[in-house]
Amino acid sequence: MSGLQAALAPGEAERLKELDAYWSEVSRAVQEGDFDGYKATCHPEGVMVSGASKRSYPLAEALAGWEKDFIATKQGKLKASVQFRFSKRFGSSTTAHETGIFLYSTEDELGGRARDYVHFEALLIKEGDKWKILMEYQKSNARPSQWDALAEE
Predict the structure, then answer these.
(1) Structure confidence by residue, pLDDT tens digits, 101-122
(2) Strand extents, DSSP E, 25-77
């Protein structure tokens, strides 16, 4: 057990392990173009908050807009991946508030590449033994140096 884990409250190491598995599943679904798998990580009443557009709306609406990229990925027309790094992780046995940066990378059939670093906050709840995102707040663009700094924490 690392020094960090030893300092955690009882049950916290297990909770973080479960949440790490949740984010790994999100990453897997994006990389494989598994829309249904990705959708299963979202609460049906989830909310998307966009700092860029300064609005909030049902997460289902965001999913509908993202589905085309999942289909393109599944068909091999797009390579996509998402990675997460965290600066704050608060919660209880059934709730989590995660703050950090995600890196969403794509490459299209013509070799066009994009890398989007985004400051985000996520509110999750645990239903039974499954974590689901209830609120995703994509706050603002991040810089690669900010992403790199989180790897050192």
Answers:
(1) 999 999 999 999 999 999 999 9
(2) 42-50, 55-58
